[in-house]
Amino acid sequence: MKFCTVKQYFDDENNNNVTNGIATTVIPLPNKHLKIKANNKEMEQYEQELLRNVMPQELTKLILAANYLNFKEALDFFCRTVANAIQNKSVDYVRKFFGLESDFEPGEEEKLCKEFAWSFEGVDED
Amino acid sequence: MSQPTILLRRMSNHLPEEIVLEILVRLPVKSLLRFRCVCKSWYRYIATPNFINNNLLYCNDHNRGFFIHMPKTTGSMVSFSRPHGQICTVASHHTFEAISELRIPFTFQSGYPHFVGSCNGILCFSDYRSFEFKDVYLWNPSIRKFKKLPDTCLTHLFNVSLGFGFDSQNNDYKVVRISQSTAKPMPPPDAEVYSLSSDSWKRVGLGISWRSNVVFHKFNSTLSFPFVSGNLHWMIEMIEGGGQERRFTSMILSFDVNSEKFKELPLPDDEGGCITKCLTSFKGKLALIKFGYGVQPHSLLCSIWVMGDSWNKIRVLPIENLTDFIGFTNYGLLLVQKRSRLVSTNSELERKHKSVLIDPETLHEKEIQVDYRLDVAAYMENLALLDGANVVSY
User: Fold this and answer.
1) Using CB atoms and an 8 Å cut-off, which of residues 28-87 of chain A contact chain B?
2) Comparing C-alpha atoms, which of B336, B376, B365 is closest to residue B353?
3) Conformational region of residue B104, where left means phi above 0, alpha means psi within -120 to 50, and beta covers everything else
4) ipTM beyond 0.85?
5) Is A118 helix (H, G, I), strand (E, B) or coil?
6) What is the pLDDT of residues B166-217, one digit of tens each?
7) A123 and B CB contact within 8 Å
8) Which domains can be identified in chain A, with CATH numbers?
9) How high is the pLDDT of residue B5?
10) Fewer beta carbons within 10 angstroms: which end of chain A, N or C?
11) pTM confidence score
12) How far is B322 from B297, CA to CA, in rounded Å?
């Protein structure tokens, strides 16, 4: 079940996907989930605690780990967390975060930004 | 979750495509609109019907729904030339606490909007004053866009009833207009359907056998017509036969928004006399609510019927001082208005209304802070109408 891939990970010495640090965050999750499955509030608090010291950039690594381990609940949780972390950020921030570059023609981007100018209000400073 | 498309191939070295999509789909509409400027593929992808649908599904699954309510345009409002505020209030699903206000971005000739319905957060309005309901608007407040529908394709419009629904099979929003001629003897009504994807109206045959002895019929339009399980429903009050053989009957006309076909549905057998009855929806099913005289003075007996395979009376409860039935919340609470005090404003006596949420099981009542007659509907954020033709931004 959830633990098959974990065993595989430990057996696979050439694994670059999951570092030790990540393992300590992701792997305890299934146990905790089972223990407090019924209580959403408790799980939320546990999740907040877990992520208190994690920078949004590091979430990327956590997501890759959860994806590799095929751990759906953790994946959902991490994606939600990234979504919450970036939802009020600027376009530039998001580009850097995902390693993207603008491929619009000059002037095209400006026109597009104008279309929904109001969606740029209240955005966090970079 | 949809299959990742080649549109997003040019993604970061860090996260695979599917994961980036999983993140995007969880974002609120305002963020998504801004992030369309990140790069070309994001611009295109966020506008695809597939993504819009998934984003909507995610919102629904994660309880990001609200209510929207606005003052109901009434006959007395119009007669006394009281202005309609043109403001819609978005309120919490659970507590009805006001969260934000939206101003209707278009105006009607009469100044009085008529709320037709709400589907997935898209709102449909028409002009109250005109019996023809000629001007119809679709409005998506979460992306600040609206669209005026093209003119009717019917040759004449008489007494019109409108309905607004979502075709889940074709991912399309549709508006139905039914026109009833006032000629005597009354012919069956005419109908037309507008679909957002074609941006045009087309005539639709009634397809059911209209009773030949119907002398008069009228659409019972107390509430906006319920859209349940892909069908719009209208209740029609009729007078059959003439002279001595006059009979008052009712029928339910239902319209399947996917197949665009009409059907007749029966009303429950219990034809005990009632003051009034109206169609509505209860927890996703078609419901009928009947009001009859109660035992106490100023008290009405409210019977709730729900349509499963057939009609089922699920509850009867007394309600005191009832002036208006508005609808059921998602959780099955009854929202009504009750008679309240008379208030003097500008030397005019105005009756204020008390809005109350009643639990049909426990009969527990909770007052909410709205003191005018209102229209209410479910509301949520939605990206639909994003890149349509003739859509106006504001």
Assistant:
1) 60, 63-64, 67, 75-76, 79-80, 82-83, 86-87
2) B336
3) beta
4) no
5) helix
6) 999 999 999 999 988 877 777 888 999 999 999 999 999 988 888 777 777 7
7) yes
8) 1-87 (3.30.710.10), 88-126 (no CATH)
9) 38
10) N
11) 0.85
12) 11
